[in-house]
Specification:
The structure holds two protein chains of two kinds. By secondary structure, chain A is mainly β. Chain A contains no helices and eleven strands. Classes of the chains: A mainly beta, B mainly beta. Chains A and B meet through β4, β5, β6 and β10 of A and β4, β5, β9 and β10 of B.
Chain lengths: 114, 113
């Protein structure tokens, strides 16, 4: 158990819909990272938040957004969903703002868009 | 553009033998490298890392070798055990710029008892 929790585990929805994925970092970790893993692909970095503020942005679509709340949990919002958004979405946390300390990933949310 | 590549999607090894997983990168700004192991229905778990100032780092049965001139790293597992069967991801980070990691596509290791 990494200490990082993600809900829900599975999500099935239709094209055009909007969903919210939730991540709770390990106790004491200030940074949250979101990654997307499509079929047979590596993990692609989406976005990082550090202590409530956006720190770094990767290949995140404009239809996607995220935020980190005062209790440090984070939510990833995906809207106007397309078939190609079906993927595993992982959240990771680290104590600092540096990705080099990223040892802890959540179990992921599997999103299926029909 | 995939900056971290794992060209072998799968590898099978007999229990007790050595497993060698390979990873290549293209970005010369990468100076920190990590290996993660992933079981089905779980997130990646950090295994071992290496800084570019070293060419080898060892932790128990796991050793990572870095060849900067070839932009290549490898993970050696000796001896391999059935519990090592998983997908292994190589990741890299740059000394400047974003804080994120760049991941390879993974190698599925199967250790045959």
């Amino acid at each position: 158990d990494s200490g990082v929790t993600q809900t829900p585990k599975h999500l099935i929805t239709a094209t055009g819909q909007r969903v919210t994925l939730r991540c709770s970092p390990r106790s004491g970790d200030l940074s949250v990272y979101w990654y997307q893993q499509s079929l047979d692909q590596g993990l692609q970095f989406l976005i990082q938040y550090y202590n409530g503020e956006e720190r770094a942005k990767g290949n995140i679509l404009e239809r996607f957004s995220a935020q980190q709340f005062p209790d440090l949990h984070s939510e990833l919002n995906l809207s106007s969903l397309e078939l190609g958004d079906s993927a595993l979405y992982f959240c990771a946390s680290s104590p600092s703002g540096s990705g080099r300390a990223m040892g802890f990933f959540g179990p992921g949310t599997r999103l299926t868009v029909l | 553009d995939q900056q971290v590549k794992q060209n072998s999607p799968s590898l099978s090894v007999q229990e007790g033998r050595i497993s060698i997983l390979n990873c290549d990168y293209t970005n010369s700004m990468f100076d920190y490298f990590l290996w993660y192991k992933k079981y089905p229905a779980e997130g990646p778990t950090f295994l071992i890392s290496i800084s570019s100032i070293k060419d080898k780092n060892e932790d128990g049965r796991f050793t990572v070798f870095l060849n900067k001139s070839a932009k290549h790293l490898s993970l050696h597992i000796v001896p391999s055990q059935p519990g090592d069967s998983a997908v292994y991801f190589c990741a890299a980070s740059a000394r400047t710029g974003a804080n994120n990691l760049f991941f390879g596509t993974g190698t599925r290791l199967t250790v045959i008892p």
